[in-house]
Structures are given as structure tokens and as C-alpha cells.
Amino acid sequence: MLQYRSLKKKLEESGGSNCVAKQEPTCGVECGNATQAEDIKEGKTLVTSPAITVNEFKLIRSGEDSPENGGKTYFVQEIQRRLPRIEKKHNVFTDDFKIPVKPDVADLTFRLPDCKSDRHTLVLDLDETLVHSSLEIQKQYDRLLHVEMDGNLFDVYVKFRPYLFQFLQEVSKLYEIIVFTSSIESYADKLLDILDPEKCIFHHRIFRDACIQHGRYFIKNLDVLNRDLSRTIIVDDSPRSYFYHKSNGIHIKGYFGDSPSDNELEKLVPLLRHLLSAKDVRLEISTKLDSD
Ligand SMILES: [Mg+2]
């Protein structure tokens, strides 16, 4: 995580106008007016076994667990593991993340052209979903990219997630594939050329400048895809990035290059096959989320 943040920071610092999102949030809503989840009640129970309320959850996350709130630090690892699902399910964010208002479709300055195939659409995040990249020197890596950003050249060490190429082969037979990344184009496009040298897997590549930047977060508004969202799925390690379209999102555990036995991509394939038969993938995904 540290490395990724370092990468992001360096990319942002070095990027100047080319790297920072060109499109300011079209909503124009500041944090104070944002629609932060309204259903958060401090006494609301997030998980039942053990019973942990929103307030306790926040305390545990902030490292302030104590006997006064039941001494539930014991469960912190379990809660950490489930954090993305909990955030997604309950709209609970323990830091400063607030949700900007989603722009109207009519106000979008960028939209993909109409879909030419009758396939469902699978939107894939890049960093920590398909690969892990770092600006720090790595002993083990799969590719070393030389990425120019705002006149500076950076070495980017890339580690492919296990099963990556098999996964791409499998899903590209089933779906229209779109990569939607909050990373800058000069880095991501170079990497995607390596993942798809024949340009037969990714139908579209969408980069940071199509995201809505809100503070240090980049939100992926699926409306820019110009697709039928009842037939569109996004796979991302950050539920925040698809917050406008939670029912379209499948959360995948983040990959940080240090787990050779990682099989998250492999595990996804049966679910993605199953969703092809769903009349509305959002109902299937919501049902799955409710049962987690
Ligand atoms: Mg990611």
C-alpha cells in the first residue's frame, strides 16, 4: 500500500497539468454540501458476530479501541479484512471521504461511442486489480516500464497478478472489455500495450481524465461508458471508485505483488460466467452483497 501511495503521489507530483485530471468535478459540490451517507447511525450494527456498531468500528479503525467500547480490538483483523465490503454495504467511511453529487448525463463532456457488440460489458480496474506497480526498486518484477511524465522519466516496476493472462483470455471471449483506470494515460496505456499487444482484448481504455476527482479520490462514473448498466459489471479493488454504481460493482481484494498464491482473478471467472445469464446484473450483485 505504501508503495502504491508513493507511486500515486509521485505520479501526481510529477504530472503537472498532463497528469492531474483535466476535468474538474462537474458537480462543483464541495465537501460540506456533499451527500454523505445519511443512513449512518452511530448505534447501527455493522456486523453481528461479533456485534460491532458504527461507532465502535470507527474507534477500532482509528486505533482507539479500549475497554470502554468492549475491547474489541481482538476482532480488528477480521474487520479490516471485511472493510471494503462493509463500506460498500453500509455507506460507512471512516475518513474524510464524502460523496459528491453524480453529474447529469447531459453534463458529461466525455462518453464512449455506442457499443457495437451485443455482449455484456466488463469494466476492469488496473492497479491492484490486474497488476501492482511501484516506483521503488523491486527485486522481483515482471516488467520495467520507462514512463515519461511531464518531461521526467520514471522507472515503474510492474508485477502481474497471478492468473492475469488466463483471466483476460477467458473473459475476453465472454464480454466487451473496458479498462477504466484512475491512473494517468502515459503510464497505463504503455502497460496495457504489454497486456494486450495484439489489441484484441481491451475494446476501450479510459484513464484518469475521465474520472471525477474528489480530493484524493477518483470516482469512476459508469455513465461515461454509454452502456446498458443492467448488462455492465465493474471489477475494482476500491469500492469508492464505483460508488455511484454500487450494484454494478464486484469488489476484488487488492493485489500488492507479494502473494504468489493469489487466486482472486481465477475465482472471479465462474461468477462472471454466471452473470451473463442475469436479466439485470445489478440485481444479482445486490443480492450477493446482501448475503455477504
Ligand atoms: Mg485499483
From TrEMBL:
A Pfam family recorded for this sequence: NIF
Protein name listed in UniProt: FCP1 homology domain-containing protein
InterPro entries: Dullard_phosphatase (IPR011948), FCP1_dom (IPR004274), HAD-like_sf (IPR036412), HAD_sf (IPR023214), TIM50 (IPR050365)
A molecular function (GO) term: phosphatase activity
Domain of life: Eukaryota
NCBIfam families: HIF-SF_euk
FCP1 homology domain span: 115-275
